[in-house]
Amino acid sequence: VVFDLEDKCEDAQMRNHFDFIVAAANLRAHMFGIKGRTDEEYFVEVLQSVIVPDFAPQEGVKIAANEAEAKESENNTAGGMDESEVDQILSSLPKPGELAG
Hints:
Elements: H1 16-31, H2 40-47, H3 67-75, H4 83-92
């Protein structure tokens, strides 16, 4: 994947890839109580060191092709975990106030 900072959207006249990355990074930072950034120089520098791996679909993953398959998939969403396991994992995560930023 190559991010072209000069790529313009015909409708919105904005740099699609770059603006998306800045917005997503700032939303993610906000979720964890971390102060975001918007200076272009910082993002240009960081993006040059990012390596995006090639996409390879996982074996055994099934995507619903119709409503019946989607409903069947919804019934198996927990992946075999019971509610107590989910609660245990959630309780082990740090609180937003405990994170840096």
